[in-house]
Structures are given as structure tokens and as C-alpha cells.
Amino acid sequence: LAPHPGVPAARSTSHWSPWSEPVNLGPVVNSSATDINASLSPDGLSLYFVSTRLGGLGSNDIWVSRRASQDAAWGAPVHLGPPINSAFDDGGPSLSDDGLMLFFTSSRPGGFGQADIYVSRRTDVNDDLSWGAPVNLGPIVNTAAGERAPEYVAGKGKHGNATLYFNRGALGGQPADVYAAPITRDGEPLGPGEIVADVNAPAANDAGQSVSANGKEIFFWSNRAGGLGDADIWSSTHQSVERPWSTPVNLGAPVN
């Protein structure tokens, strides 16, 4: 990468190759509405994302597009419908490594704060419309603030448990920060979320995190100083869950 002046290179090219130019998925997936928070299924054949397009139940709804193979074109997006979507904001979809759990955020009634994290389960990984009734993760994880953008990482936490990464912040108030909570392989919280201090910046919004399958690299957006625009994508790495995360680096151009 050739970083923007004042922005460090994202990583040593002796370890990672440069990022390619971003490619727009085109008008089948994208629309004239807002289309964000894309998340791939483990087999790479289903793309879950949030959209404000017509045909939803609320202002933000979760949709899915499917393709026959990783070389095939994406099909027309399908609304997940109830019980996943509601008349309220529903977003931040993320699947477990086995494709049987869908974690997402919702502001529907019955939660503990501005937005809560829910989990829904299914038995058929090939049926994107067979999700069961969502279950609120409860007050161990959810608070009066907003918990958003859940990201499940299997078997990489302390004592071999899975880890649920998410961001917490209050709309119009407290800046968002990245948190992590221990969770069972079945999606049951084992303890409260703890702030991931190494990747957060004081007084900045740090959110939208996505963690690599091996749990050693995290990507997130931040509006901290040193970026190219209002909010940029940054990354950090660590060798194991016992080691601290490295100082986050800006991915630079052409990603940002």
C-alpha cells in the first residue's frame, strides 16, 4: 500500500499483500437506498446486509442475497421477514462459524436499552429463511446504552470459549467503543462485555468491528485523528488472546 501522507502503512508487505481496489457489487445487490453492514456466511454463498430499501418492515431491515457458487453472480436480495425483522431498527447481522446462529442488533420493544443484541438459530444452513424466534442475550451483555454490530468468533477466547465482539455507545452521547464478552459455542453469554482498550481511541467512535476467523486480526471503523476522511477502516493484530492488540493502523488507500 502507498499510504496517504501522515497515515502509516496498514501492514508489512512481507507478511500481507496489498489490498485491491474495492469493487462495487452492482445494482442487483446495491440500490438507491442505504445498503450497509454486509456479512458473508461461512460458505461464502450468502450475503447478509442491512438496507433501507422499499419492502421492509422498519427503517433498517436485514436482507440476504445468495449465489450458487463463489464464482457465480449474486441473486436478487430477499427480505428475511419476521421474526428477524420488525417495525424497528434491525441490523448488524453476523453468522456463527457453523452457520447455525445469526447474531444481530435490534431496537424492538422488550430490550434493555437503545439497541440490544439478539441471537436466532436454524438447523438448515442452506435455508436462509428458516431462522427461529430471536432471543435477547440479556443484561449480561445488553445495557441501557446501545449494543451493536455483534461478531461471533469461535473458540478463540479465554479458556477456549467463543468470544462475542460488539460495540457499545449511546446515540447522541457516549462515543462507541469495542467490547468483547465470553460466550458458549451455543450462543449463551458467560460474562459481561469488557472494553477492548487496546483498539479504542479516547473520545473517538470505534465500531463496526470484524474479526478474522483465527481471532488474531480485527478490522473496525473509527473517526479518530490520522485518517483520510470522516471515518476510516483500521486494523489491529495480536498473537493470542493473552497478548495485547497492536496499535491500530489505518488501511490507507485504496480502501480508505
**Rg, Cα atoms, Å:** 18 Å
- In spatial order, strands of the major sheet run 1-2-3-4
Tell me what portion of residues adopts beta-strand conformation.
Answer: 25-35%
Largest sheet: 4 strands, antiparallel
* Computed structural class: mainly beta
How far is it from the N-terminal to the C-terminal residue, by CA? 11 Å
Order of helices and strands: EEEEEEEEEEEEEEEE
Mean pLDDT score, rounded? 90
Helix content: under 10%
Please count the beta strands (DSSP E, at least 2 residues each): 16
Low-confidence stretches: 1-14
> Counting H and I runs of at least 4 residues, what is the number of helices?
0
Coarse morphology:
globular
Give the gist of this structure:
The chain is mainly β. It has strands spanning 35-40, 46-51, 61-66, 78-79, 90-95, 101-106, 116-121, 135-136, 146-153, 162-169, 177-183, 194-195, 206-211, 217-222, 232-237, 249-250.
Secondary structure layout plus pairing:
Elements: E1 35-40, E2 46-51, E3 61-66, E4 78-79, E5 90-95, E6 101-106, E7 116-121, E8 135-136, E9 146-153, E10 162-169, E11 177-183, E12 194-195, E13 206-211, E14 217-222, E15 232-237, E16 249-250
Walk me through the structure:
With 256 residues, the chain is mainly β. 0% of the residues lie in helices and 33% in strands. Strands 1-2-3-4 form a 4-stranded antiparallel beta sheet, with no helix packed on it. Strands 5-6-7-8 form a 4-stranded antiparallel beta sheet, with no helix packed on it. A 4-stranded antiparallel beta sheet has the order 9-10-11-12, with no helix packed on it. It is globular, with a radius of gyration of 18 Å. It starts with 34 loop residues before the first strand and ends in a 6-residue tail after the last strand. The N terminus is likely disordered.
